[in-house]
Specification:
This protein is mainly α and 162 residues long. The protein folds into two domains: 3-109, no CATH class; 114-162. It has helices at residues 3-20, 26-53, 59-80, 89-94, 101-109, 135-161.
Length: 162
């Protein structure tokens, strides 16, 4: 594998851990940023050494290096990934707390964006999570708002005409 493939493997590992263990706060995003920077540096050094000594031609050794790198990335992510309950993912696995379907759904929702700007409220936690809407209620609200705005405009035009 070359450096780009190893970097894609790093991104995939980070995404997988974030989806499987979604109970992380702002510290989780910071941790992932630091991990990405650190392991990208390691991947770059491995690529330079591989090209310098011609290791890329030895396919079996190259696969071994990639496997060791994958194990090290997953070890660092599972051992140190911060959680709100202060229990690392490796300890959760050790105590038998395996991610459920609900955890995976919550983890995937963290990577979605709410395109529904009608129901946004700055004080809600669910601002950027896609939500279901009642279409008829939204249409009625829009029609009401348009009619109120139209009446206000007509009144302001009448005032200016007089």
């Amino acid at each position: 594998m070359n450096g780009w493939q190893r970097f894609a493997l790093l991104i995939l590992c980070c995404f997988t851990v974030m989806v499987l263990y979604p109970d992380f706060g702002a510290a989780g995003w910071t941790f992932i940023g630091v991990v990405l920077a650190m392991w990208t540096g390691v991947i770059m050094v491995l690529s330079v050494i591989s090209n310098l000594f011609g290791i890329y031609r030895l396919e079996t050794f190259n696969k071994l290096i990639t496997f060791v790198l994958l194990c090290a990335i997953m070890y660092s992510l599972l051992w140190y990934f911060p959680q709100e309950d202060k229990v690392t993912p490796i300890n959760k696995i050790k105590y038998g707390e395996i991610p459920t379907k609900k955890d995976i759904e919550r983890g995937l929702k963290r990577f979605t964006f709410n395109f529904d700007f009608i129901r946004r409220n700055a004080t809600r936690k669910e601002n950027f999570i896609n939500q279901e809407l009642d279409g008829d209620k939204v249409k009625k609200g829009i029609k009401k708002k348009v009619s109120e705005t139209t009446e206000e405009l007509i009144e302001s035009i009448d005032i200016h005409v007089e």
